Amino acid sequence: MEPCQRYSLFSSLMHWLMAILIIALLIMGWQMGQMPKGPEKFEWMGLHKSLGVLALLLILLRIPGRLFSRVVTAGHTLQDHIARLIHLLLYLMMLAMPISGVVMSWAGGRDTHFFSLLTLSGAREKLPAVAGFAHEIHVTLIYGFAALIVIHIAGFIYHQFIQKHDILHRISLRP
Ligand code: HEM
Ligand code: HEM
Asked: What is the 8-class DSSP label of residue 171?
């Protein structure tokens, strides 16, 4: 592995923006789950949905940006293969979570507002089976997603501080 290789500025920027956004969405989602039904929960749900749609827009930009930019983790050790698999699964989660959220809301007949900029109207006739399936996916995947993030961060700590490969530098925003 080449420690001096770097991700593009675009990939690095997307990584850190999305990392903050996703951790916020997970914490916020769990908080919402604890709240009693009412106007406060409704407001949080609106913000969760707007930020979730932002995550969807960012990942839809990030994936093509990543496909056309430099590949960094090009090693062939078992550790490199595991890192690549975890990254791939993280990308799948970053797609599946917001898509299942949007489908759940749409099929439940609820509008999705993207802040006050755009509104995706809910289905005119509710589709309870589709909404139920999307809900199941949304609330089940969070455990896999959270576990992958923990593994990813543990891998980072091992690599950076125990093996002493400066991988943070590869995805850093600093020139
Ligand atoms: C929600 C949280 C996060 C997600 C979804 C995430 C996702 C990813 C993905 C998909 C990649 C691969 C990039 C690519 O190949 O295009 C990556 C790389 C990386 N991430 Fe994260 N990440 C998160 C949080 C973090 C945190 C908190 C750290 C460290 C403090 C971190 C450190 C790194 C590093 C160092 C790399 C580069 C690995 C390499 O050079 O092979 N990530 N991350
Ligand atoms: C990366 C993006 C997203 C993440 C990480 C995320 C995470 C979460 C989490 C952790 C929960 C709590 C689940 C529970 O109570 O067990 C939740 C609930 C929810 N999310 Fe998301 N979400 C995302 C995107 C979206 C989007 C785009 C929408 C809709 C436009 C959405 C709509 C909802 C709704 C309606 C609930 C409440 C479900 C219920 O009634 O139990 N989410 N989300």
From this structure: G
Under 8 Å between Cβ of 169 and 6: yes
Residue reference for tokens 């050790």: 77
User: Which residue range is the domain that position 27 belongs to?
Assistant: 9-171
Give the distance (Å) from ligand 1 centre to CA of residue 152: 7
Q: Would you say residue 150 lies in a domain?
A: yes
pTM across the whole model: 0.94
The answer to whether the CB of 134 is under 6 A from ligand 2 is no
- Kindly state whether residue 1 falls inside one of the protein's structural domains: no
The domain tally of the chain equals: 1
- Chain Cα centroid distance, residue 141: 11
Query: Ligand 2 centroid to 33 CA: how many Å?
Result: 9
Q: What confidence tier does 120 reach under pLDDT thresholds 50, 70, 90?
A: very high
| pLDDT single digits (tens) 15-35 | 999 999 999 999 999 999 999
Flag whether pLDDT at 132 surpasses 80: yes
What's the whole-number mean pLDDT along residues 139-147?
98
- Which atom of ligand 2 is nearest the CA belonging to 59? 1
Task: Say which DSSP state 124 is in.
Answer: S
The ligand 1 atom at the shortest distance from the C-alpha of residue 88 is 10
